[in-house]
Amino acid sequence: MTLKTGFICDESYFWHDTGNGALCLRPGGWVESDVHSENPATKRRVKNLLERSGFIKELKPIEPRTATREEIELNHVSSYIDKVKELSDTTGGDAGDIAIVGTGSYEIACLSAGGALTGVDAVMNGDVQNVYALTRPPGHHAEMEIGMGFCLFNNVAIAAKYARKKYGLKRIMIVDWDVHHGNGTENAFYDDPEVLFVSLHQEFNFPPDRGLTQHTGEGDGRGYNINIPLPAGTGNAGYLYAFEKIIEPIAEQFKPELVLVSAGQDPSPFDPLAQMMVTAEGFGKIAAIAKNIAERHCGGRLVVCHEGGYSSAYVPFCTLRVIESISGLKSKVEEDPYQMVIDGLPSDVLAKHQKEAIDQIAKHHSEFWGLMVK
Question: What's the structural domain count of the chain?
Answer without folding.
Answer: 1
